[in-house]
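Task: fold both queries, return tokens.
Query 1:
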Amino acid sequence: MPKTRSDALRRVIIPLTLALLLVPGCSGAPVSPVATPTHLDLGEDWGDDVGNGVTLLGTEDALAAVIAAMRAEHGGTMTGVFVDTADRMMTFVVSGRGGSVEAEFTVNGVSTRIVLTDDVAYVLPSPTGEAADGAYACMGVDDPAVARWRTLLDPVRTVAEFSADASAIAAAGEGTANIVLGAEGTLGALTVSRDGPPLPTALVRADAAGTMEVEFSDWGETEVAPPSPLADDC
């Protein structure tokens, strides 16, 4: 017997009807309410002092957020003082990031200037004494005369290395938080912003090597160009 238009419609309508009966609310049967998690209090607002939320993170995650924020700025300036256990003092100013840096280190009134750019290190005065007075010597970035300053030649590296033993984080003064260093903060603290990106504002540390105080400022990309004058062999 030939199939009629009614047969075709029946083949479509019957499966569709069965499908609708399986959908909650379409069968006429009562629908059970969705359970509400009892371990979450969704009605409680965060306090006004939470800021960017860095204090809600675990210590390791908070420090990772600080490093990520520093990298996103592509540079900054850190100004610091280090005093060793023999009371010898070094001051330093470093601007930039990674392989693009201008730095000056002063110990006992004698300054060393280092400029890193395009995988070349320019150093004044010349560590070998071969360059003319006032001329920057050119050397590889891995040269021992440059590598000895490596930890302080990048604000990101400085924070990462001197905060590796962070043990806790807590709100501090207005708009800041302290990532404490060492057990119960016995070695110092890294102070970071709770407003906007969690960028560091200060680092204070005292350990077996000596004491260090650093301030951070001028976040943003720093343009670094080769200095002058340069030694003849540059």
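Query 1 returned. Query 2:
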Amino acid sequence: MINEVTSTQINSKLKKVEKHNMLDFIDGDGFDQLLSFILKGLFYGVIFFCIPYFIFIMFSL
């Protein structure tokens, strides 16, 4: 019985710590770095895929 209560208390503390870490990540520099990485990827995707396709369409008309 005591082990179950202790286990539950530890699990609830771990969940609170995980939520706190997630909020710190969203509020901190990590989220900004993630967004900049995604933005760079989307930018290069547009450059390497959309512009050559646009040029192909322009020459094929």
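Both queries returned. Flag for query 2: Residues 2-60 form one domain.
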